[in-house]
Design goal:
Blueprint lengths: L1 H10 L20 E3 L6 H8 L6 H5 L3 H4 L10 E5 L6 E5 L1 H4 L6 H10 L7 H9 L3 E2 L10 E3 L12 E4 L8 E12 L6 E16 L4 E8 L8 E4 L18 E7 L5 E2 L4 E4 L12 E6 L3 E2 L2 E2 L3 E11 L4 E8 L3 E2 L3 E3 L2
Length: about 325
């Protein structure tokens, strides 16, 4: 894979080069670094670069390669080559370098489960596995919880309930509830609806209505809540990189209803696929400058966010660095 990546670098189009500028190395950047369990690509990049999102630039990666970066594992060695005009990183695999000895069977498991993630998986796992933003009316045709025989209006894990029948042979469900509307603060366009994830259920008796068993609940479940097949498959296999286009957006929501977000908190941005964002995009966060004596002061940069889930009109981003809380309506743009 490394040879392939390097070959593509030599022959491929440097899609990111138009956004590349001078690489700024950390003053104490190591000549070699042995990857350890718990590292993220962001962490590793920050050991070498002042701007971690320039990871593709120092590897000479094109945009296609950004989408399949999981070829770094604990025990691998990253080597910094300063001999050329531009610093370059290269990779020595663990078995090549002799730092780790694994049987083939164990190695397969390691490659499947322990590749270095881009960002802390624990910070985004819930947001990756659940559908939190939907278009208007997306749940209108979804099966609906009717109620329970005991006339209970609040349900939880272990309860059985009846729901309208779904299409197909789905038996495992996610329980969802449409949430607040997400509107663009500048254009007032409706961007979608946040969806509240309430729990999971399993069909125990098919029919119309079908009988379901609620197997997990994170919040109270009520009649009228909707079911969606629990078939979402998503994996985060991208690396930090700058936007391919010019981005100017805003923070329009923070998870949990809080008005301030710190490191590793999730925020919702009013930009998505249609604006040219993709997973792994890094954006800078700015506070709008105050007005003093009728003079607006410059916007001040307060942190960095990394996009990890993209919908058509909005996206989720993780706060990677911040020296001030990230607030609603903060500005995001190219770093």
């Amino acid at each position: 894979m490394r040879k392939l990546a390097l070959s593509l670098f030599l022959t491929g189009f440097m899609a990111l080069s138009s956004h590349a500028d001078t690489l700024k190395m950390q003053e104490n950047a190591p000549d070699r670094y042995v990857v350890v369990k718990g590292d993220t690509l962001w962490d590793i990049s920050a050991k070498f670069l002042r701007d971690p999102w320039k990871w593709p630039q120092i590897w000479g990666m094109n945009r296609k390669e950004i989408q399949n970066p999981h070829w770094i594992y604990p025990g691998d060695v990253i080597v910094l080559d300063r001999s050329g005009a531009t610093p370059r990183l290269s990779l020595l695999k663990a078995e090549q370098y002799g730092t780790v000895k694994l049987s083939p069977q164990v190695r397969v498991e390691a490659e499947a489960d322990q590749g270095v993630p881009s960002i802390p998986a624990s910070a985004v796992s819930a947001f990756i596995s659940q559908p939190f933003v939907m278009e208007e009316g997306a749940l209108n045709d979804a099966p609906r919880i009717i109620g329970a025989q005991e006339d209970r209006i609040v349900l939880g894990a272990g309860d059985q309930a009846y729901a309208t029948n779904g299409k197909g042979d789905t038996r495992n469900w996610k329980i969802l509830r449409p949430g607040k509307a997400l509107k663009d603060p500048d254009t007032k366009e409706l961007l979608g609806y946040q969806v509240e994830y309430l729990g999971e259920a399993h069909t125990v008796a098919e029919g119309d209505p079908q009988r379901i068993l609620i197997t997990r609940s994170s919040e109270e479940i009520q009649p009228g809540d909707r079911l969606k097949p629990a078939t979402d498959a998503y994996s985060f296999r991208y690396i930090p990189h700058p936007p391919a286009v010019s981005i100017l957006g805003r923070v329009i929501s923070t998870y949990g209803g809080v008005s301030e977000a710190g490191q590793y908190a999730t925020v919702v941005l009013n930009k998505g696929k249609r604006d040219g964002l993709d997973v792994g995009t890094v954006l800078a966060v700015y506070k709008k400058g105050n007005v003093v004596d009728n003079i607006r002061l410059p916007d001040s940069r307060s942190g960095l966010v990394m996009v990890y889930r993209v919908f058509d009109k909005v996206c989720y981003a993780l706060v990677m660095q911040t020296h001030r809380p990230v607030n609603l309506l903060d500005i995001v743009r190219n770093p």
